[in-house]
Design a protein that fits this description.
Helix content is 28%, strand content 23%. By secondary structure, it is of the alpha/beta class. Strands 3, 4, 5, 6, 7 and 13 form a six-stranded mixed beta sheet that branches. The radius of gyration is 21 Å and the shape is globular.
Length: 394
């Protein structure tokens, strides 16, 4: 690297800001007859509604502001609603809930605000991501809000974060990684292997496109199959495509696994068995460097949520990606994990967009930060040395 109802924005300091939340707006007017969508749980809707009631005691000034992705806004009966990326919103609420559970001062209503921010990637839906160009398509505006002090932390899907961070930002916290496999969804067949030649598979991922074409070259792949989960399921239901691949982790976070036809194993296709860096959706939170006391409190909040095993795995993967200078135009897969003996296993590859050329490698070593970063770098250097001239000129 999303559900749908309504989220009401409040005003702060006299102006309208995106302190919005929970529910599902993306599917308004698009009922799906065969595939199911699901709104965020009622508890999350209540947390996200910004209407202030005098009878409810709450913190007037938020102690912590969490920035996340959002899309366009609409007006309904004089109220502004945000067409959010509901997967991003679900991840922000997961962070919200974990912080509340860990810190009593954040459990009071209004202590945490979720700030929905429209990013470049959310604004431009008519082109494939690779054609838009640039890095940080889903993070740039959020990072700017972080640096400008409009939010305190940012929650991102792992796949959205560029290899090079903006100055003054760090990645101090990783929530525990979810299932990294892909889900196959179709109304007509139970697997990619059963799709007839010429059938169309929709994806917004170059990595998934390469993966499909490598194993099933007679299929057609629509690369600009973009939009949130509900939009993609609607297009599938309308026959725009015959199948799609989505991250199982995202569907689980949205409680939408009932739409899954089958889950792809690591052995099912050559590209999939390496793990897939793009697919991971564990959240990462960025925090600005600062010496003031409020920032120290924020750092303590984040430290309480960090999953160290995930943080180390991601450091290895990012070192690999950075060495290859990967971008949204480069199908790269990388996956680091701890085996039963406590060692780090890393598998990585790079492929041409048409899936015809594949380079892969693997490493095994100590599950220690320095060693894992070195493994990622070394694996990246090996693939660079294996590549023929022009291999990365996609």
């Amino acid at each position: 690297m999303e559900t749908l109802a309504s989220s009401i924005c409040t005003t702060h300091g006299g102006g309208l800001v995106n302190f919005c939340g929970g529910g599902s707006v993306c599917v308004l007017g698009f009922p799906l007859q065969h595939l199911k969508t699901q709104a965020l749980p009622d508890s999350k809707k209540k947390q996200s509604v910004g209407v202030i009631k005098a009878s409810v005691a709450k913190t007037e000034v938020a102690l912590l502001r969490i920035g996340t992705r959002g899309s366009s806004s609409i007006l309904i009966h004089s109220l502004q609603f945000i067409m959010e990326s509901t997967l991003a919103l679900a991840q922000a609420h997961e962070t919200h809930d974990k912080l509340m559970a860990s810190h009593s001062e954040l459990a009071e209503e209004g202590a945490i605000k979720i700030v929905v921010i429209k990013t470049t990637g959310d604004k431009i839906l008519s082109q494939p991501l690779a054609d838009i160009g640039g890095k940080g398509l889903f993070t740039k505006e959020i990072d700017e809000a972080l640096i400008n002090g409009d939010i305190d932390i940012a929650v991102h899907s792992r796949k959205d974060i560029p290899t090079y961070l903006l100055e003054k930002t760090i990645l101090p916290c990783n929530l525990q990684r979810e299932d990294v496999r892909d889900a196959f969804i179709s109304l007509s067949t139970s697997s990619l292997a059963e799709l007839p030649a010429g059938n169309v598979v929709g994806t917004a991922s170059l990595r998934r496109k390469s993966q499909i074409l490598h194993s099933y070259p007679l299929l057609k792949v629509v690369e600009n199959f973009r939009g949130n989960v509900q939009t993609r399921l609607r297009k599938l239901n309308e026959g725009v495509v015959q199948a799609t691949l989505l991250a199982l982790a995202g569907l689980r976070r949205l409680s939408m696994t009932e739409n899954v036809t089958s889950v792809l194993s690591f052995d099912e296709m050559q590209l999939l068995r390496t793990g897939l860096l793009e697919l991971h959706v564990e959240e990462m939170m960025k925090k600005c460097f600062s010496s003031d006391l409020s920032s120290m409190s924020d750092a303590n909040y984040l430290a309480s949520l960090n999953h160290e095993e995930t943080r180390l795995a991601v450091a290895c993967e990012r070192a690999f990606l950075k060495t290859l200078d990967g971008s949204c135009r480069t199908p790269i897969a990388g996956y680091a994990y701890k085996d039963e003996d406590g060692n780090c296993i890393f598998k990585g590859l790079v492929t041409s967009p048409d899936g015809t050329r594949v380079l892969e490698t693997s490493r095994k070593g100590s599950y220690v930060f320095e060693d894992m970063v070195m493994m990622g770098k070394d694996a990246g250097k090996e693939l660079l040395s294996m590549a023929s001239p022009g291999f990365f000129d996609f």
